[in-house]
Amino acid sequence: MLKTLCCLFCFVSTVMCAQNKVSSNLLEAPVNGGLKMDEYWVWGSSVIKGDDGVYHMYASRWPKFLPFHPGWMTNSEIVHATSNTPEGPYTFKDVALGARGAQYWDGRSCHNPKIVKYKDTYILYYMGSTHPFEDVSKNNIAQFTLASKWCISARWGKRIGMAISKNPNGPWERYDAPILDVKPDSFYSFLTSNPSPLLKDDGAVVLLFKGRNYKEDGISNSDMSIGVATAPSFEGPYTVVGDQPLFSTEHLGEIEDPHIWKDVNGIHMVAKDQRGKITGVAGDGLLAHSEDGIQWEVDPNPKAYTKLVKWDTGKIIKQGQLERPFVLVEDNVPTHIFFATMDGPGGFSKGSKTWNMVIPLSQK
């Protein structure tokens, strides 16, 4: 009985520590932190400290002559930026993964990067897509909509892939096939996207991912589900666990952009609550925890963050969008949380600029 109570106490303490390390420990966001690029939409960053002591950020960008959505589907590339501090500002260095030809599965668009390292190898997970048509340009932009030929093809082709390098500055060696493909008659029969990897000490991988499936009409696609795959090493093979998703509109609630990390308190997830079923507000962040990265439970107090951000100018501003959370962990302690954000009243079509921002986490 005493052993059971002790285990329960440790479990509750772990959950509360995860909660405190995010929602209760958000400090002021530096206005000049993160990454901004005036001529581009910038989105979704992932950061790692290299052996050189420099912080390396990988982020998505695409030209601003395209609408934010769905411009990323056809023209996104993953860029590399650096800073001497986690907060930044980050300085653009190069394009890590760009367009490489329609004949490749990721030949037109690379998006949603997540960087990890195992021993001496840097591993860049991402979503890729392609289409067989002419480039979208200023000359044909009037035809470019979510229902256009470019987007129908690019959305259907979304898959999860990987690139590796011995140096955070590259060059990057891409895999010529996705590491996680679709499966007929599954919750990910339409696409796989938004990878979030956790590398264990023995090199095994737990990979959360977003899936959509075909509806009964065989044409339209479902809402988002979150599944989990495992692999004995980052090289694969990656195998989806079970036939049912971890999160969906039918189970717990629809979420997006899960990010998982491990620290002194265990394995945690932060994600966007798409419809507010879990946190009570659509778009707010939620927290969940797991013992193995495969079986997940929502935290008792699940709210991780809201769109209200306090900046180091003293202003509190409600962001139009606040997505793609990423937690930087150093020495087994979460130190910063990064977000993709947008100005405006909310809605992808109503913002005029995007950037990747960062909020330091208090270590109290």
Strand-residue proportion: 35-45%
Low-confidence segments, given as residue ranges, are 1-20
Mean pLDDT, nearest integer?
93
Strand order of the largest sheet: 1-2-3-4
What is the H/E string? Answer: HEEHEEEEHEEEEEEEEEEEEEEE
Total helical elements: 3
Secondary structure class reads mainly beta
- Give the CA-based shape: globular
Helix content: under 10%
Overall strand count:
21
| Cα separation of the termini | 32 Å
Radius of gyration: 20 Å
Main sheet specs: 4 strands, antiparallel
Task: Give a brief description.
By secondary structure, the chain is mainly beta.
Describe the structure.
It is a single chain. The protein is mainly beta and 364 residues long. 10% of the residues lie in helices and 42% in strands. It has helices spanning 2-20, 68-75, 149-156; strands spanning 40-49, 55-63, 77-83, 91-97, 109-118, 121-129, 159-165, 173-174, 191-199, 205-212, 225-231, 239-240, 255-263, 266-273, 285-290, 296-305, 308-310, 316-318, 321-330, 333-342, 354-360. The strands form 6 sheets. It has a 4-stranded antiparallel β-sheet. It has a 4-stranded antiparallel β-sheet with strand order 5-6-7-8. Strands 9-10-11-12 form a 4-stranded antiparallel β-sheet, with no helix packed on it. Residues 1-20 have low confidence and may be disordered.
